[in-house]
Amino acid sequence: MTLHHSKQCFKCHQTKPIIEFYKMKGMADGHLNKCKDCTKKDCLDYRRRNPERSAKIRAAYKKTPKGRRLAILARIEQQKKFPEKYKARYNASWGLQSGRIKKRKKCSRCRKIKKLAMHHEDYGKPLEVVWLCYVCHSIRHKEIENDITQISTRRR
Question: In the prediction, which pLDDT does 149 show?
Fold first, then answer.
């Protein structure tokens, strides 16, 4: 049981309610000394600096029972939230099985021979895919996200 109702983050130096800190048994008050916002920023920075290592860690986690369960729940949420993406992925999988889409051996971006994923530039064209390794696929989606952010910023 915690005695404090607020705590100061050692990183941003802001005093925040204790619920803004992750629980950690090893700490005297049972909570991490860095707030959730700073922790999330640090984790995101680490993933950006170490994409291959981060991909391996995520892949290993997805093999655990908890990771599999959370992946299934996340997939169901994504299907509800983005039905056009789900439909394009389903049709692309069908296209691959039926031979209408040919699987590549090298990433279209880095040209390395790795495990590849199908990427859609346009979900309205489900059989038009680009073959990317997981690292390049992640980078491509970040580029798309940045393009969308820049467009919405210009409109303001």
Answer: 65
- Exposure string of 118-156, with b = 16+ CB inside 10 Å and e = fewer, is bbbeebeebeebbbbbbbbbbbbeeeeeeeeeeeeeeee
DSSP line for 1-25: --S-SEEE-TTT--EEEGGGEEE-T
Bridge-based pairing state of the strands 6-8 and 15-17: antiparallel
In this structure, how many other beta carbons lie within 10 angstroms of the beta carbon of residue 48? 12
Angstrom CA distances, 132 to 52, 113, 125, 138, stand at: 14, 10, 17, 9
Q: Is the pLDDT of residue 151 over 90?
A: no
- For 47, 104, 137, 142, the CA distances from 52, given in Å and listed in that order, are 9, 21, 12, 15
Handedness of CA 69, 74, 80, 83 (dihedral sign): negative
What confidence score (pLDDT) does residue 2 get? 43
